[in-house]
Predict the structure.
Amino acid sequence: MKPDALTLHAVLDCAGRLLPQYAGRRAPHWELLPDGSISVTRAIITHEQLNYALQHSIVCFGFFPTDANLVVIDIDKGHSNGVNGFSTLAERLPEISPLLWASTACTTPHEGQHLYFKYAGVKRYKSETILPGIEVKHTGALVTAPGSLHPDSGLPYSMGFGKFSDCIEITEQPFSGFCSLMHLHRTSPGYEAPVYTPRRQYNGSTTDRAAFIVRTVCRKFANEGRQYRIYLASAWCLREDIPEAEYEAAILNVPEFLRFASEDPDGFRHAMRKN
């Protein structure tokens, strides 16, 4: 099986650059700069370079959604954690689930999907898990391009109906339902950093303090996503030098967070900033 060169050239036209990805999911060095732009070394920027890479057995390429003015919704299925993002979507966003066929999408090797939506706004959104088995990929996310083969298994990322350049706006109903679950990235215009209450002269048990912090975050940020609340609680406890084991135990005492940790261990670890 060979990569779909026609689709990869279309992605290059839209994104302006591609990054080769190798076995073990490695890619050339890149970094997110303070202004939200992305610095890359050894990116493919011309069709001649892409043809050369394809001729020399490079089968997998990544692109940055912000380069192509896209937001990518990644729906997982068949991963080791057993979470089915399609079931989550049908349960939590039933108005979107029956209309997935209308979106421009790529089928992944594990029968998940990458949904591509146009977004030309100035705001930048966090790349994070927004629901079990569903991730938003925007600022700082490297997404495997359709037309690629998985660098380890050789299975394809297959473009479905529609062209890569023909995407629906994410603000269009009912797909705008995803927007209500997305959070601004720290480099985005309009982002407001969380305000932490200093510990001051608190001399009590750090275990009690961690429990208080978790309760406070859950109360003040009740309308935010659980991953964001876990991150806020972890960051606050870390600033006060509370041992990780103590604040993790306090977080897991919240039933909603405990379910999240069991359903999506990787998402929980990411929220705790462990990976």
Summary: The two ends are 33 Å apart (CA to CA). Residues 206-220 form the longest helix (15 residues). The CA atoms of residues 118 and 169 lie 4 Å apart. The first strand starts at residue 19 and ends at 21.
